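Changelog note: in this version the structure field was regenerated for every chain. One regenerated record is shown below for reference.
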Amino acid sequence: MRKSLKSLPEMHAKVDSLYLHKTEFVGLSKHVQELQESVDFTSKQYDTVLDQVKANQQQMSKGEEETDASKKIVFEQAMNIQRLQEDQNESEQYSRRANLEIHGLPFNQDEDLKDDLSKLPVALNLPNISPFYALAIHRLPSKRDTVPAVLVRFASLSVKESWSAARGKLRHLHQSGALPKLFFIDNLTKLTRDLFWYARTAANDKGYLFAWVKTGNWMIKRMKTHHFSE
């Protein structure tokens, strides 16, 4: 009995210790629960952000697909426009095949172009300029301080080609004083003319000495003894 009574304080101490540990355990459990709630909240936030990122990626992917489709449409439209421009230029150039530009003819305020050009057929041994051979003769628009060229629209391509073939005599006739310094060239569209200047520059860079246009086609020659290239 005495032993039991002696052990009572020790038992009370153990009970107090257990109660203290219980309190600590309850506090720890509460802290763990709070941590779990915080983890759950953070996890939900992460899931929300992840869903938003996925939605943004899908939207971006859709936007990229729409952009690619738009680029394809724009490219196809650009190609169609280019083909139409090329077809239009080809048709316009074809309509000019019987036209000839004469450069270097002095300008007079009250000039009569048919009369001024009347010496050319005789000097070049060509058909006379008449309504039968030439449908129209007029000056072309030009920049200020530049003598405008004369455009002759021949009735047929063969007559125009006979004039073009005789342009090699112009230099000799100028040197002899029979004619002013004249040049015969094809009547080109702006696009064809720009392409010709580009082609001529490229031909010169590759060593070709001569480049010109004949009935809308580009001609080049490296040396006088070489054949023509078209």
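Spot check on this record: The radius of gyration is 47 Å. The mean pLDDT is 77.
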